[in-house]
Write a structure and sequence with these properties.
Number of strands: 10
Number of helices: 15
Shape: globular
Structural class: alpha/beta
Radius of gyration: 18 Å
Strand content: 15-25%
């Protein structure tokens, strides 16, 4: 397992990789890095695959465009197309977790010739809303529920990243704790923020690292986000309405390649994205696996690596080389 930089058409991308054989691309979410996939890179390499986990645009060792508009879904999918090409491959299986899952779903939706199968963790495929952009809809739902703003709405503010930049270690510790499966119900995040608070204030100040997150591993995250900040990662959220406008041509499109989806039973993301799990088969007709891991939280590939590896390898065996 090693790290290297790969120059693609538009970015210098840092990747963690190991193994040789059919390519499997592993896309992280927020607030993570390619290193979140270490257990999967190791298992895939041992099973005869070439596993590659990039730091995504705006994160870690990969280039960080300064313009918010440069973090849209078409840019993020394009980065993965360019990476596959730079690796000298013509097809791969794409795997995504958290924000990486929508990117993986859209890779399969837009380029089924290149991404021959897709495996999502935590976030199911969400088809484009025909009734307007997502952030006004989120605001309406929040108002109806009376739970405060969904954190995604708060992230739209141009300065929302500053609270995270002020103390990256505390911010990361709180986020990992608040979305972990081992955190008690009354201390887990719901994703909603009461009026007068910010996202980090909803997490307890005495939040500890989850048992799967060692101090040395955590230090890698802190160093990366201290160096690059949180603006780029939050810019992904700020492009949601622009993504909706740019993808009108995908309205009612379905993912036709073989697919799998796994979610943690206690993943807080299910509070606001879980409704799409029931309809997943309608939008992904060749859904070959859909599983819920009992007791697991949000950080599946790190929290339950053996179970994720088992299901991923089972899926790869189904779809073939």
């Amino acid at each position: 397992m090693h790290t290297r930089r790969i120059q693609t058409d538009r970015l210098s991308q840092q990747v963690l990789e190991a193994g040789s054989g059919p390519l499997v691309l592993l896309i992280h979410g927020f607030p993570e890095l390619g290193i979140s996939w270490r257990a999967q890179v190791e298992a895939l390499a041992a099973a005869g695959f070439h596993a590659v986990a990039p730091d995504m645009r705006g994160y870690g060792g990969t280039d960080k465009p300064s313009d918010t508009a440069d973090h849209g879904i078409l840019d993020l999918v394009g980065d993965m197309v360019e990476l596959v090409r730079a690796l000298g491959e013509t097809s791969c299986v794409v795997v995504g977790h958290d924000w990486g899952a929508p990117i993986a779903w859209h890779c399969a939706l837009l380029r089924p010739d290149l991404f021959r199968a897709v495996f999502g963790l935590s976030v199911p495929f969400q088809p484009r809303r025909p009734k307007g952009p997502p952030t006004p809809a989120m605001a309406a739902i929040s108002q109806r529920l009376g739970l405060g703003d969904l954190y995604i709405s708060r992230f739209q503010a141009a300065d929302a990243h500053l609270a995270f930049d002020a103390d990256p270690a505390a911010a990361l510790r709180k986020m990992f704790y608040s979305y972990d499966g081992g955190t008690p119900d009354n201390r887990q995040s719901t994703g909603f923020i009461p009026e007068g608070q910010d996202f980090l204030a909803t997490a307890p100040d005495d939040a500890t690292l989850p048992p799967w997150m060692g101090e040395a591993h955590f230090a890698e995250y802190v160093a990366a986000f201290s160096a690059s900040g949180f603006k780029g990662p939050l810019d992904w959220y700020r492009c949601l309405d622009a993504n909706w406008a740019a993808t009108a041509f995908l309205q009612d499109a379905r993912i036709r390649v073989p697919a799998g989806f796994v979610v943690g039973e206690r993943d807080p993301v299910r509070h606001y994205a879980g409704q799409h799990e029931a309809a997943l088969k309608d939008w992904v007709p060749d859904l070959r696996m859909q599983a819920v891991i009992p007791g697991a939280g949000h950080w599946l590939q790190q929290e339950r690596p053996d179970e994720v590896n088992r299901r991923l390898l089972e899926f790869l065996e189904q779809v073939g080389p």
